[in-house]
TrEMBL record:
Transmembrane feature ranges: none
Domain Beta-lactamase-related as annotated: residue spans: 13-203
InterPro entries the UniProt entry points to: AmpC-like (IPR050491), Beta-lactam-related (IPR001466), Beta-lactam/transpept-like (IPR012338)
Record SUPFAM superfamilies: beta-lactamase/transpeptidase-like (SSF56601)
Organism name: Pseudoxanthomonas taiwanensis J19
Classification via PANTHER family: BETA-LACTAMASE-RELATED DOMAIN-CONTAINING PROTEIN, D-ALANYL-D-ALANINE-CARBOXYPEPTIDASE/ENDOPEPTIDASE AMPH
Official protein name in the record: Beta-lactamase class C and other penicillin binding proteins
Length: 221
């Protein structure tokens, strides 16, 4: 849906403008499932309107700082720097070339956050208690709100893929792939961050989890 001849990066507000130009949806709301990055961009705009803050400031003050995520930042070119950052790479013509920013890399509702493994470990730990969200709101994230036909995703929660005893999500941008898999009953989580476009990290996260006693994918309690 990106405009032809686009010569700049789009931001969350641009996503709203693009959606406003559409005259139909893929299916009637609530009748089927399709993963939507655009939905997360809209949620970032909702957060800004409700909080009166820009989205990066909200994340910094309400999530990153309270949890001690010292190096995490919702990155905006020209507004901040990312210390000790990794650059993204993609394979082209038999060689690895730097491919670090795409036209959609500046959309922050669905990505654009730079964080270390230590930062993400702190964030994951907070999902076990009330530091970020109290019950019943926290439980809603991991409730099976809709069924899907995607492999390893029998149900989708609020921002989490649910597969038996595990909850997980993956993400990618040009030159980057990542995955986090959680086994809450075992208090086990695996985070894989990669600054290359292949291979996908989800199978590696499952394999690492098995080394520490994680149940097989899809296994229930």
């Amino acid at each position: 849906m990106l405009p032809a001849g686009l010569d700049r990066q789009v931001h969350d507000a641009d996503v709203l403008a693009i959606l406003e130009g559409q005259d139909r949806t893929y299916f009637p709301p609530g009748s089927a499932y399709r993963y939507s990055n655009s939905g997360y961009a809209l949620l970032a705009l909702v957060v800004e309107r409700a909080s009166g803050q820009d989205f990066p400031a909200f994340l910094r003050e309400r999530i990153f700082a309270p949890l001690g995520m010292a190096t995490a930042v919702a990155h905006r070119e020209g507004h901040d720097t990312v210390a000790h950052r990794a650059w993204g790479y993609s394979q082209a013509g038999g060689a690895w070339v730097r491919t670090d920013q795409s036209p959609t890399s500046a959309v922050l509702g669905d990505g654009g956050i730079y964080a270390s493994v230590d930062d993400l470990a702190r964030w994951e730990a907070a999902l076990h208690d009330d530091r970020l969200l109290r019950q019943p709101w926290r439980g809603l994230m991991f409730a099976p709100h809709t069924a899907t036909d995607e492999p390893d995703v029998p149900h989708y929660g609020y921002g989490w893929r649910l597969n038996g005893d595990s909850t997980w999500h993956s993400g990618e941008s040009i030159g980057f792939r990542n995955a986090i898999v959680r086994w809450p009953r075992q208090r086990l989580a695996v985070v894989v961050l990669s600054n290359r476009d292949e291979p996908g990290p989800y199978p590696l996260a499952l394999a690492l989890g098995r080394l520490y006693g994680a149940p097989a994918a899809g296994a229930g309690p």
